[in-house]
Amino acid sequence: MENETVPSYFYFTLFKGYENVRILYFLLTITAYLVIILFNVSIILVVFKDKSLHEPMYLLMSCLFVNSLYGSSALFPRLSADLLSTTHTISRSACFTQIFVIYTYAISEYTVLTVMAYDRYVAICEPLQYHNIMTQRRISVLILSAFSWSIFWMSLVIYFSIRLPLCGNQIHRLYCSNWSVVRLSCVSTLSNNILGFFVTVTTVFLPAAFILFTYMRILLVCRKSTAEFRGKALQTCLPHIINFVTYSIATFSDIALSRFEPGQIINAIALIISLEFIVIPPLLNPLIYGLNLPDIRRKILSMMISLKVALSP
């Protein structure tokens, strides 16, 4: 229990050694953030403005884009400032706020993907009952539950983490992560580990299992259907499948990374793995859905043409 402290700030160690290229990384970070805002906001506006797209699939898709903007806001502005700074420190309150936002984003990504999988399951396996099951009220409840689930669990995680006495203030990442703070504890973290395991199972593995189950059922239905039906089913499910697979790989990589001690993995690899689940989905999701769904693609092209005409002299 010696050297027990409650540090007023934390120090990010992964910035060390990149001083000569920090301007380049700053420009890349700002560019990525602006692209994320442009892509995600564009599709949200398309869905919001066009009443023909006010269907459960497109509303859930918009929730995914809103979540991407929410999660990105916790990383990119702070990361940009740190790249121009020479101190690379963050206050205790800001650190725990960043943990809360980033990981509510991460959990919400899975819960929204789970609701989307349920929507596709009902649409393909119970097409005649689709509008009776996926009512506006039910969609609202499912969306609210998806985001409330992440807020509840992360509030509990933060409560357990913020009470720990810490014997250090160095975080081996570019942002605050819960496990990076917990491992600085001066006392046993058994309760935190048990809670973390339970949260991971209920927010990652159970949703992933449910999504896989829905697609197994969809595959069974498609095997007994016509080629035209299979083509339409694949067209609506493919973006979700790509999104689920890429996000799962990024999430499981981050979970695996958190189990290693600082210094056991090369800094550049640790840096890439730790950023995957926050950077890749917000960048890829709009492209995946925008390019694969004909209705969205047509509306975006129509909006671009209208904008070009409006700006032309």
Detailed description of the structure:
- The chain is mostly helical.
- It has helices at residues 22-49, 56-84, 92-125, 130-133, 136-162, 178-182, 190-223, 227-258, 267-292, 294-311, and strands spanning 9-12, 89-91, 170-171.
- It has a 3-stranded mixed β-sheet with strand order 2-1-3.
- The protein is globular and about 65 Å long.
- The relative contact order is 0.14.
- The model has no long low-confidence stretch (mean pLDDT 86).
Brief description of this entry?
This protein has ten helices and three strands.
Task: Summarize the SSE layout with pairings.
Layout: E1 9-12, H1 22-49, H2 56-84, E2 89-91, H3 92-125, H4 130-133, H5 136-162, E3 170-171, H6 178-182, H7 190-223, H8 227-258, H9 267-292, H10 294-311
Parallel strand pairs: 1-3
Antiparallel strand pairs: 1-2
Helix pairs in contact: 1-2, 1-9, 1-10, 2-3, 2-9, 3-5, 3-7, 3-8, 5-7, 8-9, 9-10
What structural class should be given to the helix and strand makeup? mainly alpha
Q: Quick one: biggest sheet?
A: 3 strands, mixed
Number of helices: 10
Order the strands across the largest sheet as they lie in space: 2-1-3
Strand percentage, roughly? under 5%
Q: Uncertain segments of ≥5 residues (pLDDT<50)?
A: none
N-to-C SSE series?
EHHEHHHEHHHHH
Q: Given the C-alpha coordinates, what overall shape results? A: globular
Task: Quote the distance from N terminus to C terminus.
Answer: 72 Å
- Proportion of residues in helical segments: over 70%
